[in-house]
Write a structure and sequence with these properties.
The protein is an alpha/beta fold. 39% of the residues lie in helices and 19% in strands. A six-stranded mixed sheet has the order 7-17-10-6-9-8. Strands 19, 21, 22, 23, 25 and 26 form a six-stranded mixed sheet that branches.
Length: 761
């Protein structure tokens, strides 16, 4: 068989594997009717229809294409020699009267004539719908091609409204814009010509002959250009919405935007459609905001546009989330600071309001660090907001008392069930609010805080968390040993990122998370880009632990941190102390007492040979030889207010279908490489929520997931048997989880017994 002769050679049986549209159905019905009686059918079709037939005939069919008498002879020999008892479709491009060697197939088996596809379509539309279709021959051919992705309604629309419904430009234009050359290469020339004519009409102009790339660029310019007016025409906006919401076609949209960046002047700049895709416009907006930061009235006028941009639900969002953080910064109401009259009120103001400003400035640093033209103005704006609050904070700071000492001991003793405690290093109160937002609505949250020890450094504050004797213990292993000795419960210690199913049986699980402090001290501001990933990891582990039997998951930390931003020499605090001095960015230790100004706070604290601690009443760092950026150890609320959050499962008022493993007793010592698992659902409560449940099976070895099943839908009262391979794992734990919530429903141990080779006995 020659390659030119065989169109497809994978026939098993005639089976349509996809939902047929009208034209597909007609062709396959006519061919199927013949093959139901005989093993051969000849389809008469012009060469231009081969591509169309290739799209509508099932891949399983054994199909031959012949163009000449010689190919007919070769085809007949091949069919009779190798496919005598199989069903075969032969597509002949010559008229029936000109056929030679396969003429007998056409006469005695069956012949489907679509050489005149226009007449074929008219006849089949009338037979199927009882309607007359009034289209030109070219339009009928185009309709046949276009109908492949459409159903009955498409033909009904053509019968009622004629050629204007040949194309749905709003949908058909997107694949053309995404890949103009590829779009045209996969369609008949007649279809492409008709499509181009419709596009030109859609653009409101005469039919202009252009290369595909040129036409696509003009269409894109018209669509995107309409967005700059603020009032785009509906037909352009509808296409843009579909384009902007398509992940598959996002690349072409951004490509056109880069080729035609929008440059606008006032006042047109702020009239742009809110859900536009232009980075250039967003950068111009940002520049305008920066230029007018000191002018509150000007900023107020622009806030509605920023809100509209932030809330837009379609189209590309430049640096997603940034607009929301800018709004938090620009709309922050600082009027409540004046009324603060105690440290408690200052703490409440920070933990309910001001922390959002820290989130905002951190996000701006993350996005724009290295671009001083953006960072410095917002940094100055932030400092102006925070400075009055810090004045109040330090005004009442004499009332500050740490309550971090022995926190882990206290919390473990008060736990009513199994508890996991995530102990962070440098996880601030502000960051934890982001973690809370990421845990979802199935988790109950008790969002508390504690005052940490002074200075707010790891060695000091980790000692306070683990121990209650006031001794600073530098070694983590000794801190853990002290904790174990104080509580009468079995404690396991693990790094948070290593938590897996192996740890799901512990009574008390202490999970260390040092990521933020580690990377921030090494990378300073550059570490900010990794914090979102750490937040996601913490949130995922919280949900994982709750779904695997822990009644409570607590999240706390040794200390928080401040970000110093861009610093000039004048921004660094310089002091002249005498005697032995140890300077850090946020505090200074001395052996001797110093004479200090009202800008400093003195603490008496023994640490080695040092006896005194000094802190600044502002956010300026002390001048030191080290790097600046991420810092802690000082007295700012961002450093001292640590999270103390308890997560627990939210009780559901809905009763869901219970699922169990019915053959537990058969899963120990299984002989062979396969085991059968029987899932049994209870009878349910008779309501809609207990009729069915979707579950998934997770396969665990040594605490780590190595495989998982497809999602299984099990109905009330149903027993489902599934067979699985051990896959070279002798001992497996199978965990059945809810497919949606990931809640563990049940688990079972499965073990394999390896049969010994008895040598044929």
């Amino acid at each position: 068989m020659t390659a030119s002769l065989v169109m497809r050679n994978r026939y098993k049986k005639i089976r349509i594997r996809r939902a047929l549209t009208m034209f597909d159905k007609w062709i396959n019905q006519d061919i199927g009717d013949v093959l139901a009686r005989r093993n051969r059918v000849v389809v008469g079709a012009e060469a231009s229809l081969l591509d169309l037939l290739g799209k509508v005939l099932p891949k399983e069919m054994k199909i031959f294409v012949v163009h000449s008498g010689l190919e007919e002879l070769e085809c007949k020999y091949t069919v009779e020699k190798f496919h005598k008892d199989e069903k075969v479709v032969i597509i002949a491009t010559a008229p029936k009267t000109e056929l030679t060697f396969i003429r007998d197939y056409a006469e005695t088996c069956g012949y489907v004539d679509i050489r005149n596809v226009e007449s074929y379509v008219v006849q089949r539309v009338f037979q199927e719908l009882g309607l007359n279709i009034s289209l030109t021959p070219e339009e009928l051919k185009v309709a046949a091609y276009n109908s492949l992705a459409k159903g009955r309604e498409y033909w009904e629309e053509l019968c009622r409204k004629g050629g204007e419904r040949l194309f749905d430009i709003g949908s058909d234009i997107l694949p053309f814009l995404h890949d103009p050359e590829g779009f045209c290469a996969t369609r008949d020339a007649v279809v492409v010509a008709a499509f181009f004519e419709k596009i030109n009409t859609w653009l409101g102009r005469g039919n202009i002959s252009q290369p595909p790339e040129t036409l696509a660029k003009e269409v894109a310019e018209r669509i995107l250009g309409s967005l700059l007016t603020g009032k785009p025409k509906k037909r352009y906006l509808d296409v843009y919405k579909k384009w902007g919401d398509s992940k598959a076609m996002e690349g072409s949209l951004l490509g056109y935007c880069r080729e035609h960046p929008a440059r606008l002047e006032q006042p047109e700049l702020w009239k742009v459609y809110a859900a536009h895709p232009f980075d250039s416009v967003d950068l111009q907006w940002l520049s305008e905001l920066i230029a007018h930061l000191p002018d509150s009235d000007s900023i107020k006028d622009k806030l509605p546009y920023i809100h509209a941009r932030f809330k837009s639900s379609h189209g590309r969002q430049w640096r997603k989330g940034l607009w929301g953080h800018l709004l938090q910064l620009l709309e922050f109401d600082s009027s409540g600071i004046k009324g603060i009259a105690s440290l408690e009120e200052a703490t409440t103001f920070y933990t309910t309001e001001l922390y959002r400003v820290d989130t905002a400035i951190r996000s701006i640093y993350e996005e724009f660090w290295g671009d001083e033209k953006v960072v410095r103005p917002f940094q100055e704006y932030y400092n102006q907001l925070v400075s009055p609050f810090l004045h109040k904070w330090f005004q009442y700071f004499d009332d500050y008392r740490e309550n971090q000492k022995g926190l882990l001991i206290e919390r473990i003793r008060s736990a009513q069930g199994r508890i996991a405690i995530i102990v962070g290093d440098g996880i601030s109160f502000e960051i934890v609010q982001r973690v809370i937002a990421k845990t979802g609505d199935t988790v109950k949250v008790d969002n508390q805080y504690r005052y940490c020890g002074i200075p707010s450094v790891t060695e000091n504050n980790m000692s306070l968390l683990y121990c209650d004797d006031g001794v600073i213990e530098p070694l983590q292993s000794r801190r853990e040993a002290y904790l174990v000795a104080q509580v009468a419960k079995r404690i396991e210690f693990v790094q948070l990122e290593e938590v897996n199913f192996q740890h799901a049986e512990a009574d008390v699980l202490i999970c260390s998370c040092k990521d933020i402090d580690d990377i921030a001290e090494k990378m300073q501001h550059k570490a900010l880009k990794f914090i979102a990933e750490i937040e996601n990891m913490i949130a995922d582990k919280v949900v994982f632990l709750l779904n695997n039997g822990f009644q409570e998951v607590v999240l706390t930390s040794d200390h928080g941190f401040v970000l110093t931003g861009i610093l000039d020499e004048s921004d660094k605090a310089e002091v002249q102390f005498h005697g032995e001095v140890s300077k850090a960015e946020r505090y200074i230790r001395t052996v001797e007492k110093q004479s200090v100004s009202a800008e400093l706070i003195e603490y008496r604290q023994r640490y080695g040979e040092y006896r005194y601690l000094y802190f600044a009443k502002h956010n300026k760092p002390f001048k030191t030889p080290g790097r600046y950026g991420y810092a802690h150890g000082g007295l700012a609320p961002q450093e001292l207010l640590i999270p103390f959050v308890t997560f627990s499962p939210k009780a559901s008022s809905l009763q869901e279908l219970l699922v169990s493993v019915a053959n537990r007793s058969q899963l120990s010592g299984v002989v062979g490489d396969y085991f059968s698992l029987h899932l049994k659902a209870d009878d349910g409560a008779g309501d809609i929520f207990t009729q069915e449940r979707k579950v998934q099976l997770l396969f665990i070895d040594n605490g780590k997931e190595f495989n998982k099943s497809d999602i299984v839908a099990i109905k009330a009262g149903e027993l489902i048997k599934k067979e699985f391979s051990f896959d070279n794992h002798l001992n497996i734990e199978v965990i059945v989880v809810d497919a949606l919530s990931r809640l563990t429903l049940t688990k079972v141990a499965v073990s394999q017994t390896v049969a010994r080779d008895l040598g044929g006995l």
